[in-house]
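Can't paste images in this forum, so I'm doing it all in text. The chain is below; anyone willing to post the predicted structure tokens underneath?
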Amino acid sequence: RVVAGLIVLAALLGSSLRAEESADVKSCLETWGSLQKTLRKTPADARALRRFAGCAAVTNRQKEAILFLETFLKDNPRDADGLRYLAALRLEQKDFDGALDAAGAALRLEPHRVALYQLAFSACLGKEDFKQAITFGEKALIQDPEHPDLPAMLAFAYLADGQYAKGAEAGEKAVKRAPRDGEAWTTLGACYGKLGRDRKAVQALTQAVHFLPENPIPRESLVQAYLSLRDKRAAAKHLLVLERLDPARAEPLKNQLQAL
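Text version of the structure:
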């Protein structure tokens, strides 16, 4: 489940970086060199820096951009935007320690910027340092209580850290904000299951498999919830689907079903 959650986070973060640059790939390729020249000449040009980072994402030049930003920041160590983009690009490259270092440096300059807490939070999740991730996630939520994605991300961190009651609370908020988010329903169902609230788990995981019909993870959890309720018929029904999606996940559950 940790891996699945990280894949979702990577997709969210990658798309957020790309969303900052609306130009097409051709335009980015044509202006790549000139953007670097502009930043060397005028480091305070925030628009050029934002475009440069966005173009790096849409043209898959993250490694080249990281090297440039590292050099850029040696001369401009207090440029919070540069540090933020460096953190985001390192995160895309799964350099979680480097991403956390850059996000932390940016936070020391701008301690009230929600995006920086999100980057630090996601870097900690990548490191599987869930307690530190939760610290950053909770601070981000204080800064922006209405943020659409934070409750789901925080619920996942609580689940991974074994804080199931807090995970369920955050997960309930997440599905209210995004009722079609299958991953949020999956996390909520898993938290309910860990708390022994099997009927609530079934309700949440039924939503999860509705929105993620080809994902074996919520299907596996749903089978487990039905087994806990000793509902053989429902467990067998979803176990058949799980066997098609992921036979390895289905095998131990078949043995549990036969033992009921």
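The CA atoms of residues 198 and 229 lie 7 Å apart. The longest helix spans residues 2-19.
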